[in-house]
Amino acid sequence: MCGIVGIFDIKGETEFSCDLISRMNETQHHRGPDEGGIHLEAGIGLGHRRLSIIDLSSGQQPLFNEDSSVVVTYNGEIYNFQELSVELKACGHIFKTHSDTEVIVHAWEEWGEACVERFRGMFAFGLWDRNKKVLFLARDRLGIKPLFYALLPNNTVAFSSELKALKTLENLPREIEPKSIEDYFTFGYVPEPRTIYKQVYKLRPGHTLSIKKGGDFPEQIEYWDIPFVPLISSTEESLCKELVERMREAVDIRMVAEVPLGAFLSGGVDSSAIVAMMAGLQDKPVHTCSIGFKEKLFNETAYAKQVSAQYKTDHFEGVVDSDDFNLLNQLVDLYDEPYADSSAIPTYRVCELAKKQVTVALSGDGGDENFGGYRRYRWHMNEEKVRSLMPLTIRKPLFTALGKWYPKADWAPKIFRAKTTFQSLARSSVEGYLHTVSLLTEEQRELLFSDKLKGMLEGYSSMEVFKYHAEKCPSKDPLSLIQYLDMKTYLVGDILTKVDRASMAHSLEVRVPLLDHKFIEWTSRLPATLKLKGQEGKYILKKSLESYMTNDVLYRDKMGFAVPLAKWFRGPLKEKVTESLLNGHIKESGLFNLDFIKNVIEQHQSGKRDYSVIIWTLLMFDTFLEREIDAAV
Q1: Which residues contact 576 (CB under 8 A, 6 or more apart)?
Q2: Strands 532-533 and 536-537
Q3: Domain range for 179
Q4: pTM of the shown model
Q5: Does an H or E element contain 465, and which?
Q6: Cα separation, 408 vs 420, whole angstroms
Q7: Are residues 257 and 303 in the same domain?
Q8: DSSP structure string for 174-243
Q9: Residues 309-317, mean pLDDT to the nearest whole number
């Protein structure tokens, strides 16, 4: 895994300095501590930081074709590079290395922009073709690897793996995008293609950008999407068998490495499945690692130990203190823009633990999105039954009234927390799902935002993000629709972002077999009734794994990486919350309603309400603003 940077003069022949590219490159040293490289020529500069995984003795970047007319800086792994190299050699291309990187330059020569359709893996790269005078940027289909780019005032475009590299540019426009503030307080992250800045963007997953010298700046071009086309009917038994075969193959191609390799093992279904496949594919014990919590409520290590014992893995375990909140400031530095998933803390710790044993770790990420595993999928499908019985013209007034009348009962058992359900039922299917996943509801954002910010938004709502993707979804099945929405937003903007930054902070490569695009092309076509069967999420995955693990691992409730925020904000972080949110940069920005924030803090700290998510989201935004002001001084 690596870090990439580049800068390109679209209209001219600017000679970029080595110092400029080096400065950008070194901000990402953690992504590639083994080697660094720079290429400069008139109008373009490219930089690379390398974490050596394959072909350790060669494969240094930026890397060139035979006559040095094509050069690439690349982050990722292309798992089918060996078969592609055979095909390309047969076409007359000459290889100087045994690395997957070299496949990219020759594939570009042979197939042009369509080369990305041949690659199987995770990748983000910038490629310069001197003869065609084209800078070609590409990102893998699911967005496992990040790619940022910025439009600079002097007809140049800069790109990088992390936003921090672009922040080194003195002429980078850093005006905050109001729409991104609305999106952040809705989702907890800024979804693609926006960033927190107006003139800085993320390349969408499964998209490319081809920028020609002397031309206008182009639109992103999509080269792949999740099909969700139903399979020809087959028996449940045969589908279970095929699922395991396809998953094993996706794991197998990700076990090629010339450095120590292992796996994360939480004790959940997805990570346990990956470990089971790995154990069957190698003779030596699999290196596994897990993070435990001192609170039994959050601790899954007993299940991880059970799977480890079953497959005789070489298991390492760490324990996170429940008051591990000292990473708060560091998280903002890692993510470069507001990011509110508090599970970034234990994710950072498990990557820290894994790096002590391995350089590459396989992960179970993607299982919930693939197979309908989130609890909110069950809630949504139950709501869909009500929606199918009642038109919106009846539902909207009825459930709007019930939503207003019914008290917010954070303290009550979940069965009695009907307020959110009523509010969701008063909306359409897509609007209801957005209400379910929002960190702050539409009503709460209306109370939080100042008149100044509302004016800057000019009527914009985060609903536009979901509407964009809903219109593109190839399936009308209600479960497939929300899976598609999550894969386009939550998976890439939250889960994959979290894992990329946390792993790269420790120079650890994480591979995700369940997000293999060929595997997803197949799983997306499975009947929705085999993913969520009754109230059982991930039904077909669990059914296919019954001979691989015990039922108490397969059919227990999902736990996840929970963090005790509510306790922190009533205890050790109580004073910090009050000082930061009422007297800090949040106040100075003029973007927020301080009366609402004050009420949120008082209600939470008194124990009347659990507003920990709102407080954390505000706290991370305040810390981001502090970094912005410090950078401007």
Answers
A1: 619
A2: antiparallel
A3: 2-222
A4: 0.94
A5: helix 463-472
A6: 8
A7: yes
A8: --B-HHHHHHHHHHSS--TTB-SBTTEEEPPTTEEEEEETTSPPPPPEE------PPPPP--HHHHHHHH
A9: 94
Rounded distance between C-alpha atoms, residue 137 and residue 530, angstroms: 38
> Do residues 420 and 521 share a domain?
no
- C-alpha span between 172 and 418 (Å, rounded): 47
Residues 213 and 267 in one domain: no
What are the tokens at 188? 């907890």
Amino acid at 122: M
Q: How many helices (H) and strands (E) in the chain?
A: 29, 19
- Residues 359 and 291 grouped into a single domain: yes
Q: Running DSSP on this structure, what letter comes out for residue 2?
A: E
Give the whole-angstrom CA distance, residue 479 versus residue 532.
8
> What DSSP designation does 449 have?
B
Q: Can you read off the two tokens belonging to residue 302?
A: 């007993």
Question: Which residue from 89, 98, 4, 100 is spatially nearest to 50, judged by alpha carbons?
Answer: 4
Is 50 within a domain?
A: yes
Which of 167, 192, 222 is where one domain is finished? 222
Q: DSSP letters of 545-564?
A: TTTTS-HHHHSSPP------
Give whole-number Cα distances, 223 to 117, 140, 142, 246, 579, in Å.
7, 10, 12, 23, 48
Residue 278's nearest CA partner among 319, 310, 317, 237 is: 310
Q: What is the pLDDT of residue 433?
A: 96
Higher pLDDT, 449 or 428: 449
Tell whether the model's pLDDT for residue 394 goes beyond 90.
no
Instruction: Determine which helix (DSSP H) or strand (DSSP E) holds 314, and give its type and residue range.
Output: strand 314-320
C-alpha to C-alpha distance for 184 and 186, rounded to whole angstroms: 5
Share of the chain above pLDDT 90, in %: 75
pLDDT digits (tens, 9 = 90+) for 424-439: 787 889 999 999 999 9
Do 113 and 210 meet the contact criterion of CB atoms below 8 Å apart?
yes
Q: What is the mean pLDDT of residues 445-451?
A: 98
Residue whose entry in the numeric block shows the structure tokens 């031309």? 215
Same domain? 272 vs 217: no
Is position 9 within any domain? yes
CATH at residue 355:
3.40.50.620
Higher pLDDT, 291 or 460: 460
Q: Are residues 383 and 476 in the same domain?
A: yes
**Angle made by CA atoms 200, 204, 210, in degrees to the nearest 5:** 80
Strand runs labelled E in 401-502: none
473 is catalytic: no
Which of 486, 504, 537 finishes a domain?
A: 486
Distance of CA 568 to the CA centre of its chain: 26
User: In angstroms, rounded to a whole number, what is the distance separating the alpha carbons of residues 190 and 201?
Assistant: 10
More confident residue, 525 or 419: 525
152 and 170 housed in the same domain: yes
The per-residue pLDDT for range 284-299, each reduced to its tens digit, is: 999 999 987 766 666 6
Task: Give the CA distances from residue 95 to residues 71, 82, 99, 118, 324, in Å, rounded to whole numbers and listed in that order.
Answer: 14, 12, 9, 18, 49
**What are the residues whose beta carbons fall under 8 Å from the beta carbon of 455, sequence distance 6 or more?**
none
In a domain, 560, yes or no: no
What pLDDT score was predicted for residue 415? 44
Distance of CA 533 to the CA centre of its chain: 27
Same domain, 534 and 603: no
β-pair partners for 44: 8, 41
CA 223 to chain centre: 19
Tokens of 615: 């407080």
Alpha carbons 607 and 221: distance in angstroms, whole number: 50
Total domains present in the chain: 4
- Residue 391, CA atoms < 13 Å, CB-side half-sphere: 2
Q: Is residue 227 part of a domain?
A: no
Tally the C-alpha atoms within 13 A of residue 285's C-alpha that lie toward its C-beta.
13
